[in-house]
Amino acid sequence: MSDTRLLPVPDALVEERVDAALARMLGMSRAQCAGLVEDGNVLINGVVPSKSTKLGAMDLIEVTIPAPDTTPPPVTGMDILYDDDDVVVVDKPVGVAAHTGPGWSGPTVLGNLEAAGYRITSYGPPERQGIVHRLDVGTSGAMMVAKSELAYSVMKRAFKERTVTKIYHAVVAGHMDPPSGTIDAPIGRHPSREWRMAVIDGGKHAVTHYDTLELMAGASLLEIHLETGRTHQIRVHTAAVGHPCVGDVFYGADPKKAKELGLVRQWLHAVELMFNHPRTGLPTTVRSPYPADLQAALEALRIAD
Question: Nearest Cα to 169, choosing from 289, 262, 263?
Answer without folding.
Answer: 289
